[in-house]
Specification:
The structure is a homodimer. Chain A has about 425 residues and is an alpha/beta fold. Chain A contains 16 helices and 17 strands. The model of chain A has no long low-confidence stretch (mean pLDDT about 95).
């Protein structure tokens, strides 16, 4: 079976010049991969007619499917639609259905339309219009020389909904797709090179149709196994066999498989045991609670949290004593333990996590430099605490300490639930 | 003056297949722009020798500066270094300084090195090595036919530190760079097409050396003015003149200029007035506190927050009465007002924000569908509340309601501080 290749083109000066973070092609890569479309390249060009045409020409040489995002929108910096019409030797015409859709969107929101909104109903003649259920700019599907070109808006949830509802199903029915099967082993608490050393002999003996990649991010390393073939069940078996071989070598670092996040793994442990969680944050400033509550259904086990930036709140809401704060300081083992225990009690939870540290970039001292962070986890049986030394980067420190804190909770919860007191 | 063009190449299957979000080229775009380097294209290719070489060849046709990130690291999926050595007709040799640097990093962290770490000291002969102060993989600078090629690791803070300390200064001294001046006007609370309509006549009369772009994201729209010329002071004056003309037309939506974020704007208002803030979150689950505390120095005005997921915590920590919760439900004007007032009182703050809603994707009812969110802001004088109706996407709802909540606080704080009671 011939591989089907896609190239993704993003249009917009704001992507080139770092005014907008491109999350679209990240999302698209994941989705294309799942349906067995290979990706040859991702390209970003500016809002320049010539550059758009060059990118389309080049992509046509390499790919069967050319997906375009961005460059559509009501304001005047958008030239994509005109360029597409020219590229496909056609002209822009008003589409009745699109116009009605835009009109109904505006009337639902009690807004009136202006000329710019009206112009959004123009599409290149002959293309297949893809309805944008989340917004006003329509998607456009073109076919030429056995290749498919799809233009989508750049607003992430508009593009995503359009892909999910229309474009991915249409690609699946248009192309004969090979089978690519991925399995991800999620690890935490071990560095990339050490992980590689632990599994070196296994990796050297992988069969040729299975590839391994290491994907590190903020204290976690994902191991991705990719198998290519024609029979999904066979590939699944082949990969499962390799997973069974490798996991015993790294068991204590593995928290899950597939797309499972650390916060989902923690949620699953708590849900299964019927236990609840609360957090008390200082240096992580709400990011720990946000990470936990980003999971749908987290209200089943997450009671809530306190972000105690001021010492007053550490005392009032978490029962940290003035003496502890005075004697040891806010960034100390004693304070973070008291915070965890106070949160467990006052927020009515079985488990709790507390963080206190100097996130930076300023505020360090020679004894407690920026990046010094204390984390405590309280279980029904005990409270454990750990000091970590991170970087000078505030957001990196917040993210990394959140990962370490969640992993401490994971380990503590597993121990506590295996040995109930 | 001839424009200097850069092309950015990212190497890694994980970028193509959506396993890693590319934040590197976003950051690089911003930094290149500031020093007056134009960006012709951004390209991502997989860990494939042929694709890397093709991308290098094509970039050489278009750009003066070719910046490469990713594909460097201790594990075996990395082929970039060998490909670069071949591309520049040279071979890999061990670099003494790099080896010493890696050794000292490991001994500082009390770790021992393995063979993979040792291999990181290999570099293509003849390249200029750029020290990686944050990690083990060195940067490499090549020159050929008046073009510069720089290969950097893909770990964001390693690449960023390397760019800041070595590569950007070296680019500035190597090339004669034109002057590009950007000014950003930050707006919130008005849609892109309506903003465009308000300023249409002004936009039509912009001088030819100044361009305008609309950059929307989560309820905010940035207006970017870009001026190109040779004299920075002249460009600054030209842009300032246009800003003075346009801002009065959209004054109530403008919260700041440049890279200022809404959370920084709010922080500046509170700091100037010497007032404090607390938050009580239900549906935003900690993201509001995180957004506020992502700003260095936020501890000066941010007292802290409560994430009250359970009704018990709404009662215990925020003094919401059982009757209010029973009669109106957790997602109601009455509850969110009580939460804001409880947070202001119990968390000892001058201002407070509260959120309560159904973030989704599940949990809606016909009366209160997913996306129904109540927000309240309490000032020293009054409490105001507002209901918004958002989407079914949990993370989009969390982000958008955070923006709307911060903007409500901004407006309320400005009013309260202009008319002290």
């Amino acid at each position: 079976m011939k591989a089907v290749w896609a190239e993704v083109i993003t249009i917009g000066d704001e992507i080139l010049y770092g005014q907008t973070l491109d999350t679209n092609t990240y999302w698209m890569g994941k989705e294309l991969n799942i349906i067995g479309v290979k990706i040859i390249r991702k390209v970003a060009v500016g809002d320049q007619r010539e550059e758009i045409i060059k990118a389309l020409d080049e992509a046509s040489q390499r790919a069967d499917i050319i997906l375009i995002t961005g460059g559509l929108g009501p304001t005047k910096d958008d030239i994509t639609k005109k360029t597409l019409a020219d590229y496909f030797n056609t002209s822009l015409v008003e589409d009745e259905e699109v116009l009605e859709h835009i009109q109904s969107l505006f009337s639902k929101r009690n807004l009136s339309m202006n000329a710019l909104n009206n112009a959004q109903a123009l599409v290149p003649q002959g293309c297949t219009v893809i309805t944008n259920t989340m917004g006003t700019a329509p998607g456009m599907w073109f076919e030429r020389d056995d290749k498919v070109y799809v233009s989508m808006p750049g607003v992430p949830y508009e593009m995503e909904t359009m892909m999910e509802r229309s474009i991915l199903p249409k690609l699946k029915s248009t192309f004969a797709l090979p089978v690519i099967y991925h399995q991800m082993i999620q690890t935490v608490g071990i560095g990339e090179s050490w992980l590689a050393e632990q599994i070196e002999s296994w990796e050297d003996n992988l069969p040729p149709h299975i590839r391994l990649a290491y994907l590190p991010s903020y204290g976690r390393v994902k191991l991705r196994l990719t198998a290519v073939g024609t029979n999904r069940l066979e590939l699944e078996d082949d990969v499962a066999e390799q997973v069974q071989k490798v996991v015993p070598k790294i068991e204590k670092y593995v928290f899950g498989y597939g797309d499972l996040t650390l916060e989902e793994a923690v949620g699953a442990i708590l849900t299964k045991a019927g236990k609840t969680l609360a957090v008390a944050e200082s240096c992580t400033g709400g990011f720990l609670a946000h990470t936990i509550t980003s999971i749908p259904g987290s209200s089943r086990y997450f009671q809530g949290g306190v972000v105690a930036y001021s010492n007053n709140l550490k005392m009032n809401l978490l029962d940290v004593s003035e003496e502890t704060l005075h004697q040891h300081g806010a960034v100390s083992e004693e304070t973070v333990r008291a915070m965890a225990e106070g949160a467990k009690k006052n927020l009515l939870a079985d488990f709790s996590i507390a963080t206190s540290g100097i996130a930076g970039p300023d505020g360090g001292t020679p004894e407690k430099p920026v990046g010094t962070i204390w984390i405590a986890v309280a279980s029904p049986q005990e409270t454990i605490a750990k000091k970590i030394s991170l970087s000078k980067d505030r957001l990196v420190n917040i993210r990394r300490s959140t990962v370490i804190a969640l992993n401490m909770l994971r380990t503590a919860a597993q121990t506590a639930l295996a040995n109930p007191s």
